Amino acid sequence: MNQSYLTLPYQYIADSPTTKSYAKWQIFEEYLQNPRRAARLGVNEKLLFVKPHLKIPTDMAPHKQEADWPLNIDTRLPAFHFQNLSTSTTIEIRGEEKVLLIEKPLSDTYSAHLNIYLEGKASATLLLLSPEDSEGLSTLSLNIQTRKEAEAKISIIVIDSPKSATALFKATRLEPNSTLKETHILVPGRTLHLESETFLDQENATYISSYAVATPQNRSASIQTSAYIKAPRTAAEIRLAGISHNGELAHKGTIRIHKGSQEARGKLSSRLIPLTPNSKVYAAPTLEIESDDAAEAQHSASQSPLDPAKLFYLQSRALTELEAKRLLLMAELDKVLPEDAKREPTVQKYLELLLASLEINIHK
Q1: CB 91 within 8 A of CB 114
Q2: Any idea where the SUF system FeS cluster assembly SufBD core domain is (predicted)?
């Protein structure tokens, strides 16, 4: 791409109102106006609960080759990312488990790209754990593809420091008869923006994507998820549970079932929980059904606090207010997670961290 990112908009007028309207573009602009490549990267070792197989980057030299990216680059933030790449890595995982640790900048900006190919019963965990004193911007693009008949899983964990920022771009494509289950656990710093697009254009592919998100005080997250079903007997399910404590959280989810997608299934849900009157949450689920032979298509959105009656019931059984809220919040998070993810100790530890990020004033 030759056009400078500074000539592009963050979003187009036709995009409004969407989750992009709630993104904190002004925070990203602070980094983009005078970008400097990060001199130091790091990770919060206290949050590293599993040993990584690979640390990225392995080389801080500037990136020279173009990354493999299937989507148009016509807005400012992704254009900045690809014009300022520091590293691009291709990883093939064949029937094994891999943990990838992606270092974060202590200041300034750092941009990385990963091509991830999943074959057989492959499993990948991506960890982005900001050092406690990090104030930098991290941008990451993921080009994820499953091989034919794969039964793959991928977990993406982002735990940011209060003064850092993250942008994540994800493009996913599934080959025939393959299944991909995604789990995201996201705790932003100043702000986090995520754009995910998934393409199911091969028969009998199944995609299940789950998000657990928390926005503590004065932090924000804008999540945009899209799945495009273009082949018979394919299925896509996107489900998000988000909690905000004096922060901001927006989710726009889209599933489009194209013509010719016989017996396709699409399910989309968004459950957003404001813990205080000053918490701002926004959900916008959209289904676009062009096929006249879809087997299932449903969507739901909920923007409401925890049920006071349930809180009272638990407190009447000798739980404190904090314990009751934690129990109900964990139940909401468990609803969106795949069953196998609930049994993974690493996932559970990061869910505990997610709730801990809200606990300082959760009872107020």
Answers
A1: yes
A2: 111-331
Distances (CA, A) of 277 to 45, 205, 220, 245, 253: 35, 42, 16, 9, 24
Structural domain containing residue 187: 76-305
What does the pLDDT average to over 128-139? 96
pLDDT tens digits, one per residue of 194-238: 999 999 999 999 999 999 999 999 999 999 999 999 999 999 999
Residue 219 lies in a domain: yes
Q: For the chain, what is the domain count?
A: 1
Residue 182 structure tokens: 């995604």
pLDDT at 74: 93
Q: Which residue has the tokens 């789990």?
A: 183
> Span 17-41, mean pLDDT?
86
**In this structure, what token pair is assigned to residue 52?**
């990584």
- Is residue 81 in some structural domain? yes
- Cβ atoms of 103 and 57 within 8 Å: the answer is yes
Measured distance CA(69)–CA(274) in Å, rounded: 36
Evaluate whether residue 45 is within a structural domain: no
Alpha-carbon torsion (165, 357, 184, 45), positive or negative = positive
Beta bridge partners of 116: 91, 144
**Is residue 86 situated within a structural domain?**
yes
DSSP sequence for 290-310: --S--SEEEEEEEE----HHH
Is the CB of residue 237 less than 8 Å from the CB of residue 267? yes
